[in-house]
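Q: For a teaching session next week I want to show students how multiple molecules come together into a single three-dimensional assembly. I've collected the sequence lines for a complex. Could you give me the predicted structure tokens for the whole thing so I can convert them for display?
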Amino acid sequence: ETGVTQTPRHLVMGMTNKKSLKCEQHLGHNAMYWYKQSAKKPLELMFVYNFKEQTENNSVPSRFSPECPNSSHLFLHLHTLQPEDSALYLCASSQTTSGTGRPGYTFGSGTRLTVV
Amino acid sequence: GEDVEQSLFLSVREGDSSVINCTYTDSSSTYLYWYKQEPGAGLQLLTYIFSNMDMKQDQRLTVLLNKKDKHLSLRIADTQTGDSAIYFCAEIPYGQNFVFGPGTRLSVLP
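A: Of course. Below is the structure for the complete assembly, covering every listed component.
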């Protein structure tokens, strides 16, 4: 257990479904991140939140919609996904985005998403 | 732009030393990192080195940093089957987010 918890661990969804991924941390971190990991591109940064405000959207399609209600929780809402969106979705947190504090990001174990 | 490069695969025999190499382009990073990803899991921070150091040792792990050549390496002594994983090199250029390498898949043969 790293301190960053992601649920569910596995998710299979149809292209017309709506689902959400959840990430939770109680490390006192103020920055949270979504990454996509697939065979084609090992680690792609999707979104960055710092003190609940989105600071980066890395040209992610609108079928992915993030939500950060507070510094401890991050969601990724999914709708009308495509089979090529199948991947491991990783959440991470850090004290801030400025790199101060304990170095590095803490990652969750990921949600393995399969779109059928 | 920023870029971190690693070789994609490495195979070693159990008990041998493994050396995973990484090159990076941005010299503004305060720290450089090694992350480990075991099958089906997320990334785990393995070790990191402050940019004004040239070596850091932690049990079986030795990190070497050559700032002049922008080269980082991770040496694992007495490699075990449990070390089989993907190892990511990463840096955080000043004012930016993490830049990860593509990962090196380490296979440990019995």
